[in-house]
Structures are given as structure tokens and as C-alpha cells.
Design goal:
An eight-stranded mixed sheet has the order 2-3-4-1-5-8-7-6. By secondary structure, the protein is of the alpha+beta class. It has two domains: about 140 residues, 2,3-Dihydroxybiphenyl 1,2-Dioxygenase, domain 1 (Roll), CATH 3.10.180.10; about 120 residues, 2,3-Dihydroxybiphenyl 1,2-Dioxygenase, domain 1.
Length: about 325
């Protein structure tokens, strides 16, 4: 099998139904996760005149960038393509997708096009990124980008993601995995393993799901096939699709759980192993925490300074 180069995760994003919800969402991640703002994109009169159609705050938690996005400016118009997409995508546990960094966008585009993917280039951004739609990747919208995100601290000298591990009560060491619901692992292997070329590094069973893990580069995509057709995970695969959760590796699960309970947050799962903030209290996102290392998974850390190099079209 022709594997893809190791792809560093640039960011994970999701949509909000109303821009009025964005300040509270951002505040949650700043307060609970100690998120650091890299850049906030706002609709000023000048920006709106240039066609800006959304607002977003680029936030980093350790080496992971999280971006909640809401339609604004021209995006607030009912006929706005971007605004319509964001409003359609704004639902609990429905994420937009991932952004991955490549060294040369033309080489990356040729690599994916040769494997039968239809690529979308937003007008005026052809030298910056392209998109692979959700329907082509089990509900995961994939952006491949070249260059740097605005004011990205992870690319600056002296960046210390370890302070989230050493100084913040959550003790986050890094993003362990991105969970994706699927109707079957065979389907996930066909898309993630064969077409996208992400190597499968593990297969295992959980109480609620059978799992296959695929290496992106500095994190892992976990395809999750529910064992119970009536479970929330099974409903996600049928009705929502795509990313269903994030899992952060923490220094101490019990210490992280105690901190979150002290914030008045309700938890689900087992604090001794793997637990989550309930979606209702985490801005509609399911975010898990674990202190358990998984064999074969990459160590916590970012490869963002090593963008993927695509050579030839195979």
C-alpha cells in the first residue's frame, strides 16, 4: 500500500449556529483548558467590504489548535455559501474537520487527485489550501494547507507546549486521537487506509466500539464502529458522521477529573482510565481525557515544523 507522508495537524474546527454564541464558546476553552489565543478574525467594516463572511478565534491548547467558527458579515446573509455551510454544520458533536500542513500545495494536490479525490479550491486561496469534502472521507472535511496560520505560536522560537502539562491543572500532554464514527471498520479501512494512505497502526475493542487507528503524523484518527445500534455512537455514524470526539493525553486522569469537577462540570466515564466532559457542558463537543498510553501511537507533540512532503503522483 502506498502510504501518504506524515501529515502534521494544523487545526481542528467546528461551526457555531450563531455568532452570538462564539464569545461563550471561546471563553469556555480559555477558562477550562487555558487556551491561548493566537489570532481572532473579526468582521470590521473594512473586512466586510472585502467579503469576510465569518468570525473565528484561533486557540491553542498545548500543540493543538482549536477553531470554533460562526457566520458573520456577508456570511450572515441567507444566500451566503459559507454562511449556509456553517449553519448546516452547526450541530452537537458535528465537527467541520481537520487541517493538515503540506510543504508544497501543488505536489499535495497532485497526490490526492491521482487517488481520485475531487479537490475544491476557494477563489483567491488557490495558493494557500484546498479541501476534500466530507462526503469523500467518511464525514471528515479535510483541508490541506501550505504556509502558516496567522500568528501561530507553535512556529515561534521558545514555544513551550509543556506548560499545559506542568503548570495547568488539566496536565495536558497532547492530543492523543481524533475519533471518527463509522458504520464499519471495513469502510474506514477502505477510505482512511487505502484511499488516503494513512497507515493502520492498531486495532482493538472497547466496551462500546470496535476501533481501527490510523496514523496521520503527530496524531491518530480512531475509526469507531459501535457495537450497539442504538448507542449514541451508532446514531452519530448514521445521522451526523465524521469526527465525534477528541481525546487528550493527560499526566494524571484523577487530577484532571478533580479539576474539572471543581469547575462544576459533569463527567462521564471512568476517571481512573478514560472520561469526558459531557457534551452539554463542553459547547456541544465530546472531549475525552486519559492517562493511558497506547502502544504504537506517536508520543505527544507536534510535527507542524515538518510539513508533509509529497513527491510524485504514484
Amino acid at each position: 500500500m502506498d502510504h501518504s507522508p506524515l501529515l502534521p495537524l494544523a487545526h481542528v474546527s467546528w461551526a457555531l449556529a450563531d455568532n452570538a454564541l462564539r464569545p461563550a464558546c471561546d471563553a469556555f476553552f480559555i477558562d477550562v483548558f487555558g487556551a491561548e489565543t493566537a489570532y481572532e478574525m473579526l468582521v470590521t467594516p473594512e473586512a466586510e467590504a472585502m467579503g469576510l463572511d465569518r468570525e473565528e478565534r484561533l486557540m491553542v491548547v498545548g500543540d493543538t489548535m482549536l477553531i470554533p467558527i460562526a457566520a458573520a458579515g456577508r456570511g450572515a446573509a441567507p444566500d451566503s455559501p459559507i454562511g449556509g455551510m456553517l449553519r448546516r454544520s452547526a450541530a452537537p458533536d458535528r465537527w467541520l474537520g481537520v487541517s493538515l500542513r503540506a510543504a508544497n500545495l501543488k505536489d499535495a494536490a497532485a497526490w490526492y487527485a491521482a487517488r481520485g479525490f475531487q479537490l475544491h479550491f476557494d477563489p483567491g486561496m488557490e495558493d494557500h489550501y484546498f479541501l476534500i469534502s466530507r462526503k469523500q472521507a467518511l464525514g471528515v472535511r479535510i483541508e490541506v494547507m501550505q504556509g502558516e496560520l496567522p500568528n501561530d505560536p507553535r512556529l515561534k522560537p521558545g514555544w513551550r507546549p509543556q506548560r499545559w502539562r506542568d503548570e495547568h491543572p488539566l496536565g495536558i500532554e497532547g492530543l492523543q486521537s481524533i475519533g471518527v464514527s463509522t458504520a464499519s471498520l471495513d469502510e474506514a479501512r477502505a477510505v482512511f487506509g487505502k484511499r488516503l494512505g494513512w497507515p493502520e497502526i492498531a486495532a482493538f475493542a472497547r466496551a462500546d466500539a470496535d476501533c481501527a487507528a490510523f496514523l496521520l503524523g503527530d496524531t491518530v484518527i480512531e475509526a469507531l464502529a459501535a457495537r450497539d445500534d442504538g448507542s449514541p455512537l451508532a446514531r452519530h455514524a448514521r445521522e451526523v458522521q465524521g469526527i465525534c470526539c477528541l481525546t487528550f493525553k493527560v499526566r494524571s486522569a484523577r487530577a484532571a477529573a478533580d479539576y474539572l469537577r471543581g469547575k462544576g462540570l459533569a463527567l462521564t466515564g471512568d476517571p481512573a482510565s478514560r472520561f469526558a466532559i459531557t457534551g452539554e457542558q463542553a459547547q456541544g463537543r465530546t472531549i475525552w481525557f486519559t492517562e493511558i498510553e497506547k502502544e504504537g501511537y506517536p508520543a505527544p507533540g507536534s510535527l507542524l515544523c515538518q510539513p508533509a512532503v509529497f513527491a510524485g503522483t504514484g
